[in-house]
Amino acid sequence: MTTTDSLSTWLRVRHETDWHHAPTLRRNLTARDGFRAWCEGPVRQRDPARAKRLHLAYTRARADAARRAPLDFALLAAWQREVLGETEAPFRENDAYAKAGRERYARTPRTQSDFAACLREATDPEVALAARAARAYLDVAFFHPFADGNARAALLTLTHVLAREDVILPEVGPLQTTRYPDDPAGAADLATLIGVLNRRRG
């Protein structure tokens, strides 16, 4: 397993990424909800119970967006309890690993507070919505706060950030590709992809 701290790498890249060229998103462009369609299609085909749990978590994330709840770890943990069907979803206590051990996300005394600070930036009006959604998705992916289900948590976070401003993507499948913490161009491209999906008709 790697000794490199991929979380530290991401925090550096996060500040290097050019978020200011992210596209402007259109509100309510389509009646099709891509996340629900994904749950009812590919996820349900593989595992109906998993799809049901994910759908419940998404319903909760959308309701939290409608009431404009601040994005914080408590909110993510509530969604994650639905996703996993568990009574608890605590912040990880140790280093986490991904990609067969090729990426290590260190756990330090500052990790949870750093994560909270990053999540607060999801409503920063100085940054375009597509960039904020992409950045929040990658924050969850690379902070890796949970023992399991972080990819689902990241996607729920992205949809929540968008839904707070009345943007529902008609498709989410293309968002689910491998992301790397040392790739500022890839981070910016995720924001661009959100813009592309926003303009597709459902």
From TrEMBL:
Entry-linked Pfam families: Fic
Residue ranges of domain Fido in the record: 71-199
Highest taxon, organism lineage: Bacteria
Gene3D superfamilies noted in UniProt: Fido-like domain
InterPro entries registered for this protein in UniProt: Fido (IPR003812), Fido-like_dom_sf (IPR036597)
Name of the protein this chain belongs to: Fido domain-containing protein
Phylogenetic placement of the source organism: Bacteria, Bacillati, Actinomycetota, Actinomycetes, Kitasatosporales
